[in-house]
Amino acid sequence: MNALTTPQVQMKQPVVRPAHCSEEEWQLRCDLAECYHLIDYMGWSETIFNHISARLPGPVHQYLVNPFGLNYIEITPANLLKVDLNGQKVEPSPYDANPASFALHGALHEARDDIRCIIHTHTTPISAVVQKRKGFDNNNFYGAQLYGRVGYHTFEGITLYDDEKPRMVASLGQKHILVLRNHGIAVAEGSIAKAIFLLWTTQRAAEVQCAAAALPGEDNPLPEAVQQKCTEQTEMLIRESDFANQFFNGMVRRMHAARGPSW
């Protein structure tokens, strides 16, 4: 369904911070809930499946993740689960988490302290690209921004088992996009806003790559030096400006404007 024609859904989200929740954690919960709503709004959700996590501040490795069984549109700051690296709830909740999320999110959050948000999706264009042996190319405007940022992991089935964790970590290395071959992707970044921007860039790269593959004629390849320059320029923009937050906030405003005041 086109995002701009998504029916309005009337729902009341909690606006009062619980007494036991710090202001910092509550803001993270609010941002993560909006992230879930954005993924749904853009048409990138997969009914009740897939998962997005945000690591909580502090030295203890705990993160927030969606309750399994809820649609993304039903997620609120209050009903997000707080879990440890093994996916065990550290606060009571009537919900459980999706067991397929534990290995992926727990492994990457434990291995990379710079990773604060992980978004796992398998939209149709992304799933099509990662099914191809070549994977992502870097010859369109968006794909060029992914040069050197993609790690590839061989499909081993649904990510349920601890023994796959070190292999996923090794496949990602120090990159920020993990291609789960024949499956989907996980983008891993230093904030929710940065992860949303990276996912949007990756989605656009996949869409253009699929469209170009359907057209006759040869592609016009970009020199490797240009691909590297595009990636460096994008990373510098994200690192040295408020661009990612502006992008995230702009998308949230667009979503709320389209869904109306009842949202």
TrEMBL record:
Q: Into which family does the record put it? A: Belongs to the aldolase class II family.
MF (Gene Ontology): actin filament binding
* Entries under Gene3D superfamilies matching the protein: Class II aldolase/adducin N-terminal domain
Query: Lineage of the native species?
Result: Bacteria, Pseudomonadati, Pseudomonadota, Betaproteobacteria, Burkholderiales
Q: Which GO terms describe its cellular component?
A: cytoskeleton
Residues covered by the Class II aldolase/adducin N-terminal domain:
30-210
SUPFAM superfamilies in the record: AraD/HMP-PK domain-like
Under SMART domains, the record lists: Aldolase_II
Name of the featured protein: Ribulose-5-phosphate 4-epimerase/fuculose-1-phosphate aldolase
Q: Which InterPro entries match?
A: Aldolase-II_Adducin_sf (IPR051017), Aldolase_II/adducin_N (IPR001303), Aldolase_II/adducin_N_sf (IPR036409)
